């Protein structure tokens, strides 16, 4: 626990814990709404904001945050234009964000270190202003997911049914996209642009597979997300590896172990049922 | 009798070619109406137009938003497929049917014992009470349709809009559903609009049938309205 004597590690653990809970909750909804790639797309859009911020000498985290929100709003509008092929909207906005980021990065001289920390994540990259942004996002996220938990559940099932139930589906979807942009950009300093979607999707992928109820899915996703981030940060500190990659690898190990464990349990259960029915048949 | 839904010369198409043209119809409160027609005759599209999920290219669609007593008209829609059902949605049957009660009051309202009683009754009505703890992904196609119906019943709507709700159901479940819908109309003066291919077996429960007939190669319209053997004089 010696690492927690360092201020930067304390900040990383606080920020990581906050982001793990928010990203995992968001991930469950994104996955169920078939929008799993949106987190990945918004992280690339956010990179354009970081690059623009660096180029214009504005706080890069703040610029990335604002651009991610704008990207989230844009994707919601493009998604409605391509209703049948909604994944096309993700590709369009991602190309837009990534190409802008690449061009802007080529114009910035001698600042590749700070940009690479956004690409791959760095515990040192989490400064006090990032932590403030994360706390604000956490407060907004907690309110959003608490007050809108029922409408979000209904919309995740079927947007048309939710609309006929009288829910303002368009407004809630737009707010959801904005929230996604906020969470993704807040997570970037910890896990980096390239691996943000790992933190959003992997805990949700495990939870959706094993949970029997909706609330259980969210709780399991949060627990997996927290375990992945804390163990990833610890391993990253000890092994001197980038936190984003380490966290993502640990979450992948969790996912594979979860799938194998689930299959083993199901096999044991089926064998037991088969065995019991053969004994019953023998005696009747 | 209050007119609940009115369509006047409605035209709609997903591309330049209209799939529905010259559609004019009227459905009053307290009617049990079936919408029929062959595959691809745009029956589901007609329902979506009625619900305001699609906008017509021309013509007018008017679905009453309120009732004569000033309260809001409650609508429950059961679509043909719910995509989330196939993806192992992590939800139990009871949790899903209970969501039908969420439209009553605010989003944070705590469900009362009365709400739980209504949910239980709805699940019993469709014969799914014993399976209330099951995960939705584990159900068969017919069972999934039955829990969608239970959710619709639990929301106690004024208007049921059902898109082939009997798909995948066995004969016994289908008959139980028709009888249940007839009861909703007769006892509670609710309205039912149901897209179906089983018009023959449903006939004795219905007031009217609206049939979509072919106008051109890919265009349907000109609803033919037929009074059914079981009608209760409401459509006259």
From TrEMBL, chain A:
Membrane topology: Multi-pass membrane protein
Pfam families: ABC-3
Main localization of the protein described in the UniProt heading: membrane
Protein name: High-affinity zinc uptake system membrane protein ZnuB
Keywords recorded for this protein, A-Z: Membrane, Transmembrane, Transmembrane helix, Transport
Compartments where found: Cell membrane; Membrane
Family: Belongs to the ABC-3 integral membrane protein family.
